[in-house]
């Protein structure tokens, strides 16, 4: 809790998130509440020590010293501690403050021209869980959504006209790493004409080197047939080439590790497709239709306590 | 409970308070045998299974199922006759023109091959109208080699090895077929047959006995029943040739052999009486390798070499395993394969390893590996310097140098039997042209309903791991097996 001495309230400049001026006419001053309704009355005791052990010093904030300092000599002894922000009484003060300040900002700058839809910078805002950690309050998703809407509206202000205070205000709500700025590395063919592509599926990883050739395939230094005895797996491994009719145009040299046969074969699918895209970028729609672009994110579901496997329940026994 | 006891005065009753347990116990109800209700203490829950299959007829007789499994079907009446298909003959067998085409096997030859048990199940013979074989590079090579054998009276000694489905057994069959066409005498020890299996030679399924005449150590063992079946195979498959050849040597046998007896009849004597099958076989072999009379070259083949390159399942009187080389027939073959015994009239000794029915024979694997990838001339892995690999170039494959496993015990007899002058041929995949010829045959037979073009052939060739012929067949004709 932010606390301030009431008598000093008038002389000190208010922090920007406090909007007393606006609220003052509508509700009584916070100090007018009776002393019995406010903070603990023990404050008046002054010199009494509340700590019961010395170890407490290590884990808790230091006790409030109610001894008067020199510059406070003239202040009456029986003063109450009042919150720095009236939002204190909303239960979620930081959230409320944040919301109000953003609303204030928007009100101030809403007349600024907006950027055309395609040119709005893409920003990843903090997730609800991250925001809750930040403020330490049980903020509801719907409430946080209000903040997100405000942020999005502020973000729509034309970048060239975006005021500095809006930039500063938006900064704490941005994620530390903006995934939208993450651009995939552009692979190119090396001096031998080889292109590497990496594919994953289940727990397998495949590294594929694709080179122009005539349909020879070596996986882990062995022919396709000894790596994958099943015809289906062999077809999966070169599916990207087969679906685009390029089997006789390229040679594949691949290293696969981890997982089982199916996972390895389907990891190869993805790796071959990625490498093929470097050779022929225009094949992307065809490869997407063939299902060779999207990584299948499914993994083995974890086992849970009380279950035999991930979902299987033990057999019902009468007693 | 109150009990009314029989009173002295009939009609009146005494009142008694005797406890109930003094009363005669009530007899338990006997279960009614006629009632169909559940009996007490007996679990009676019966969940009826749907569609319980009741066996309608009698169960198959012993051996019937196996006969069905081992049946060799050589024809499919639903398949189309391939027009313009040549037959394998003496004239065209070494012709470069027929490389990559499928040639038919003429009817009498098929009978001979069947008698020699050269066909195996699972080779896809039953998919086509009549048996045909693809003339690949190795087929033409063996045809040329057989011609050289005839002209030079040499002995061709060779082992075929390669991946599963790479066509080892079929190349062996082609060699046998060519030998039949050239009127050679063919002696086959097939890997799997209806009656006697090659692994039967060593897996202790046929009876055996020590060879009384053997003085060597370790002692030799003879398999009379197997020898009789071998003689029967020789006699049936080579009847045309053997019936023309007459006995020329004098043999000391238990039964008298008339001079002028045909060799076919000589073999039949051994078939009839297994007790003398082995002496008869020796006599027959003596006749065939005799230089006194005109004798044709001999072809000796064995499929599934691994089975005779290790200890057999037989036991000697001390209950120690008998080495396969101490069995007379296996010894006979190995001696010819390694060149200990020669064929003076020329001939070929061919063996094929098996990759689907592989016995644990590390010594043979080591010997073959060392021969195929000698450490002395092993080239170091070199990065490809050219920008792209051309079709003629093989992708460089780095192999570990073949060395003995220090934790394995190797069989020196086996290692010595793979002599340096014994040829070892590793069958690779088909070339694309050969694969195309094969697929055109499939399409002409109506078994493959797809246009055979460049991309289709390459696709199947790649999926078949670089033209492994068995896999090409699986991928294009047999369809998915669920």
TrEMBL record, chain A:
UniProt GO BP: translation
GO molecular function ontology, one term from the record: structural constituent of ribosome
Coiled-coil stretches noted in the UniProt entry, renumbered to this chain: none
A Pfam cross-reference name: Ribosomal_S9
One GO cellular component, as annotated: mitochondrial small ribosomal subunit
Alphabetical UniProt keywords: Ribonucleoprotein, Ribosomal protein
Domain of life (superkingdom): Eukaryota
InterPro entries documented for this protein: Ribosomal_Su5_D2-typ_SF, Ribosomal_uS9, Ribosomal_uS9_bac/plastid, Ribosomal_uS9_CS, Ribsml_uS5_D2-typ_fold_subgr
Record-stated family: Belongs to the universal ribosomal protein uS9 family.
Protein name, entry field: Small ribosomal subunit protein uS9m
Organism placement in taxonomy: Eukaryota, Fungi, Dikarya, Ascomycota, Pezizomycotina
Automatic annotation (TrEMBL), chain B:
Tagged with keyword Ion transport: no
Region (Disordered): 25-44, 373-396
Compositional bias segments (type: Low complexity): 377-392
Superkingdom of source: Eukaryota
Keywords: Mitochondrion, Ribonucleoprotein, Ribosomal protein, Transit peptide
Annotated compartments: Mitochondrion
InterPro entries: Ribosomal_mS29
A GO-annotated cellular component: mitochondrial small ribosomal subunit
Keyword Ribonucleoprotein: yes
GO molecular function: structural constituent of ribosome
Coiled-coil region list: none
PANTHER family listed in its UniProt record: MITOCHONDRIAL 28S RIBOSOMAL PROTEIN S29, SMALL RIBOSOMAL SUBUNIT PROTEIN MS29
Similarity comment text for this entry: Belongs to the mitochondrion-specific ribosomal protein mS29 family.
Protein name: Small ribosomal subunit protein mS29
Source organism per UniProt: Trichoglossum hirsutum
Organismal lineage: Eukaryota, Fungi, Dikarya, Ascomycota, Pezizomycotina
